[in-house]
Amino acid sequence: MENVLFVLFLAFYLLTLPGNLLILLAILTSASLHTPMYFFLGNLSVLDIFFPSVSSPKMMLYLMGQSHTISYQGCASQLFFYHFLGCTEGFLYTVMAYDRFAAICHPLRYKVIMSHRVCIVMTLGTWLGSCLHASVLTFLIFRLPYCGPNEVHSFFCDIPVVLPLACADTSLEQTVSFTNVGMVALMCFLLVLTSYSRITLSILKIRSSEGRRRAFSTCSAHLTSILLFYGPVVLIYLRPASSPWQDSVVQVLNNIVTPSLNPLIYSLRNKEVKLALRKALSQGVHTCWR
Predict the structure, then answer these.
(1) Domain residue spans in the chain?
(2) Residue 88's pLDDT is what?
(3) Structural fold of domain 1-288
(4) Where in this chain does the record put each G-protein coupled receptors family 1 profile domain (predicted)?
């Protein structure tokens, strides 16, 4: 079974890296994609390259029969980068929702609202805010003494599986981590919901069915990614009872499967991305044959 899982997870991981690199290449090389929407999509591709790399390589080493141990520092690093990159992705989806709101609800003022400077400030804010969020959580969890059980009942280190191993009262850390993760997720979700409520009202006011279809199509990929992102967050962190087996399945979906699907979601129904990819690949092939 381990060999089958290794091949399966390796396939997803190898699909994730080139898929997101191709999206990033298309955005960087195509002048027509140098817009706020694709600037944020480029950031999402960078996240989807690094996010599965937090846990996938170590997990695949386990499946190959290598040592099933992880160092204390390695465990802390996994927890930090998992929440740093995961929180950044949540913030980024929120910013992308606001970008779609500005484009559809205020098309004449879109370039002023989403100027280059605003995009840079928003992006830096997502990365820095997420770094602070992850630093607080990691400090709280790893300031506790760990002197007893040392078996992490999961394939990587995260708050629900590390906290029970502490040799001290963890009620404060449980409350803070639950509140912190819950508030960040809830705030982002409500902002996304507000943006799309306004977007839906604006689209319904469009008289032509073709205009409504085109407006909805620009949001469909983003909405699909949001559902894939928030589903696992709710199942793992915001439910009262915990099931180790269910948590592992959900985290595999969140850590490995979803990052491999995002390139497909954003490219299959996007003519601009497909055209830019063909152009970039044809130029690359032409350069190689010269």
Answers:
(1) 1-288
(2) 93
(3) Rhopdopsin 7-helix transmembrane proteins (1.20.1070)
(4) 19-266
C-alpha–C-alpha distance, residues 286 and 290, integer Å: 6
* Pair of tokens at residue 25: 């290449």
Give 174's contacts (C-beta < 8 A, 6+ positions apart): 163
- The DSSP result for 185-205, as a single string, is HHHHHHHHHHHHHHHHHHHHT
Instruction: Assess whether pLDDT exceeds 90 at residue 257.
Output: no
Nearest-angstrom CA–CA distance, 100 and 106: 10
pTM: 0.85
Res 21 pLDDT > 80? yes
Residue 16 burial by CB count (10 A; 0-12/13-18/19+): exposed, middle or buried? buried
> For residues 121 and 116, what is the distance between their CA atoms, to the nearest angstrom?
9
Predicted local confidence at residue 120, as pLDDT: 94
Residues in Cβ contact with 57 at an 8 Å cutoff, skipping those fewer than 6 apart:
none
Which tokens go with 102?
Answer: 């500005």
pLDDT at 146 > cutoff 80: yes
Taking each helix axis as running N to C, give the angle between helix 36-50 and helix 116-142, from 0 to 180 degrees, rounded to the nearest 10.
30
